[in-house]
Write a structure and sequence with these properties.
The chain is of the alpha/beta class and 292 residues long. The chain contains twelve helices and eleven strands. The chain has one domain: Spore Coat Polysaccharide Biosynthesis Protein SpsA, Chain A.
């Protein structure tokens, strides 16, 4: 089984364990039938957004994954694909120079993807899904029924170096000292200006601004699932009613599945092979090096 390790930091550190326990309790106790409050009654736009940094050089097998979503156009959904340049331009126009500079400090395409999705969903709302996810043909209308953030729970077993099946880790009471519970940042479905996305974007931006090229940050905790999970935990500690702002997707794998056997996973485009290493194929890398 392929692994999406939530962080290379010590997963048993007290703060990480506290967040893991929080996510576990949330996903195991969250009701699947709770209606959205009036705060989140507005629906996100019927728009599916994806990112691949080099569209012209996109591998054929990734293109096939993206094309699996085109069938939703027949149901009135708009599909948008952003490359690195288009994403940078979008961020500059919608959020300004500060966020554009933060995007340029994303040293790997996966990091750019992480950061761009936060920028896009915060400013526009909609449905972000990774370019390597394959649509399985199930209905997605229920994902647009209200404006709560829809996210997928994950659980990583540090003893086996594998993911724990969702059906197992979300069962009430299921737990192990070797399990780390967290939220994936794929998919992200919400209305614009959602407070969780706002917090995650601010945290990611601040983290990117603080690092230097001589000490590159870990991708997951800076812009990826680790950042999102921490942002949710921080908001919950501050407001206490985080359950009203999100909806856990227990059935995401019925809707889409990640295709692991893709050509790019064998080279530096795979963030797992390039974590904390500068990826030289980015057009914005010059500005990163100048600032570093």
């Amino acid at each position: 089984m392929n692994v999406t390790n939530p962080s290379k930091e010590d997963p048993l550190e007290d703060s990480h364990r506290e967040r893991s326990n929080f996510v576990r309790e949330l996903v195991q106790n969250n009701s699947k039938n709770v209606r959205a409050s009036s705060t989140y009654i507005a629906r996100p736009p019927r728009r599916i957004v994806q990112f691949w940094n080099d569209i012209d050089g996109m591998p054929i097998d990734v293109k096939e994954c993206i094309e699996s979503w085109t069938k939703l156009e027949e149901k009135g959904f708009e599909l948008l694909l952003f490359g690195e340049c288009q994403a940078r331009e979008f961020i500059r126009k919608r959020l300004g120079t500060r966020y554009e500079k933060a995007f340029d400090k994303c040293y790997h395409p996966a990091m750019q993807s992480d950061y761009f999705r936060l920028c896009y969903i915060f400013t526009e709302g909609g449905f972000y899904v990774d370019a390597d996810d394959v649509n399985r043909g199930m209905e997605v209308e229920h994902l647009f029924s209200d404006g709560r953030l829809k996210i997928q729970p994950l659980c990583y077993d540090i003893s086996t170096d594998e993911m724990v099946p969702i059906s197992v880790c979300t069962s009430p009471g299921a737990n192990s000292l070797n399990w780390i519970f967290y939220f994936n940042n794929n998919p992200l479905i919400a209305t614009r200006s959602h407070p969780i996305i706002e917090r995650a974007l601010l945290n990611a931006t601040t983290s990117l601004e603080q690092y230097s090229l001589s000490l590159l940050p870990e991708i997951q905790s800076t812009t990826g699932p680790g950042n999102l999970s921490k942002s949710i935990f921080d908001l919950a500690c501050g407001t206490g009613d985080i359950e009203k702002a999100l909806l856990v997707l227990y059935d995401w794998e019925d809707i889409a599945i990640t295709k692991w056997a893709l050509s790019y996973r064998n080279d530096e485009r795979n963030w797992r092979l390039s974590d904390r290493k500068v990826y030289r194929g980015l057009t914005g890398q010059a500005s990163v090096e100048e600032e570093g």
